[in-house]
Structure formats: structure tokens, C-alpha cells
């Protein structure tokens, strides 16, 4: 997939598009907000946020999928990101080197069904573009809303594991062979 062939998805309320360099500052502010950051594990600073951003952008180039930047269609405001990306987190052979789903919304956008709308569209696109296959996600313990969304999206619990830094996360997958 060439860089100019990357998908843009429109839903009723959202535009999902691959990230551009200007998204780094906006999504960095979203991630830095305490209400959002509380479920994102240890985030020591801007360099970690940059690595997260680049991991997503690199996933598009190397694997043909990655996180989408979420924009409200009504205003054009960037409100987060979601999608699938390729990651390696040293969680074991059952979770490394496979597509991982993730979603992050600005704290003031939570509870409106936007994450479900976005992830439903992203997963539908992924299945069409890459064929139905196993997808993982990880959710920090205590993030009840994301666990509920994951269940609605077809993810099931596999096991718990510690992330680097000690935070316990729930490992889930969709379409486990």
C-alpha cells in the first residue's frame, strides 16, 4: 500500500484518517490529560509519546494498517485515535508480532459512543483489507468502559500480564484460532 493510498473512513460523526505530523502535538495533549492518562500505563514524557506516535505511523508503512486519527466531522476537531497497529510488547508469543487494536479519546468525548463507532469502522475496514484474522488488545485493570467496549467488539479475555513498569493489564483477543 503506497502512502497516498492510505484509507480515510467516514462514519456518521467521525472522519478516521492516518496520522500526519501535526497530529503529534494534538494527540500528545489528549494523552497528557490526567483523565485520559490514568489508563495508559506509565508515560514518562514526550519522548515516550513520540515513540507511540511513530510506532503507529510505522505500522502503516510496514504492515498496511495503523491507528487512525479521529476527527469530528461537524467541526474538524481531532479528538483521539483508534485502529489497529503492529506492536511488540514482550508479552509472549501469543501477543507479540500480531495486530493490536487500541483506542484513545479525549476525556471530554468519552461516553458518547464515539470509540465504538470508530473501532467498529476500523475493524470492518481491517477485515476487508487484510482478511479476518486474530487481533489482540490490552486494557489496563480498572478501565471498565474499555473492557465493555472490547466485549461489544468481540474481544475475549485471554490472560493478565504485567507491562514494563509493573502495571497489570488484561490481554484480550478477537478471532483467536
Automatic annotation (TrEMBL):
<protein>
    <submittedName>
        <fullName>GNAT family N-acetyltransferase</fullName>
    </submittedName>
</protein>
<dbReference type="GO" id="GO:0016747">
    <property type="term" value="F:acyltransferase activity, transferring groups other than amino-acyl groups"/>
</dbReference>
<feature type="domain" description="N-acetyltransferase">
    <location>
        <begin position="14"/>
        <end position="175"/>
    </location>
</feature>
<dbReference type="Pfam" id="PF13302">
    <property type="entry name" value="Acetyltransf_3"/>
</dbReference>
<dbReference type="InterPro" id="IPR000182">
    <property type="entry name" value="GNAT_dom"/>
</dbReference>
<dbReference type="InterPro" id="IPR016181">
    <property type="entry name" value="Acyl_CoA_acyltransferase"/>
</dbReference>
<dbReference type="InterPro" id="IPR051531">
    <property type="entry name" value="N-acetyltransferase"/>
</dbReference>
<keyword id="KW-0808">Transferase</keyword>
Amino acid at each position: 500500500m503506497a502512502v497516498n493510498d492510505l484509507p480515510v473512513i467516514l462514519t456518521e460523526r467521525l472522519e478516521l484518517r492516518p496520522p500526519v505530523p501535526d497530529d503529534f502535538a494534538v494527540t500528545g495533549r489528549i494523552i497528557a490529560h490526567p483523565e485520559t492518562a490514568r489508563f495508559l500505563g506509565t508515560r514518562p514524557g514526550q519522548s515516550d509519546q513520540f515513540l507511540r506516535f511513530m510506532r503507529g505511523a510505522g505500522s502503516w508503512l510496514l504492515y498496511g494498517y495503523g491507528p487512525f486519527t479521529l476527527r469530528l466531522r461537524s467541526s474538524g476537531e481531532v479528538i483521539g485515535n483508534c485502529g489497529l497497529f503492529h506492536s511488540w510488547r514482550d508479552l509472549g508469543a501469543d501477543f507479540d508480532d500480531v495486530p493490536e487494536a487500541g483506542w484513545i479519546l479525549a476525556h471530554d468525548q468519552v461516553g458518547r459512543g464515539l470509540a465504538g463507532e470508530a473501532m467498529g469502522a476500523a475493524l470492518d475496514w481491517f477485515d476487508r483489507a487484510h482478511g479476518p484474522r486474530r487481533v489482540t488488545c490490552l486494557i489496563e485493570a480498572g478501565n471498565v468502559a474499555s473492557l465493555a467496549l472490547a466485549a461489544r467488539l468481540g474481544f475475549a479475555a485471554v490472560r493478565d500480564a504485567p507491562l514494563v513498569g509493573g502495571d497489570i493489564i488484561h490481554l484480550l483477543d478477537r478471532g483467536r484460532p
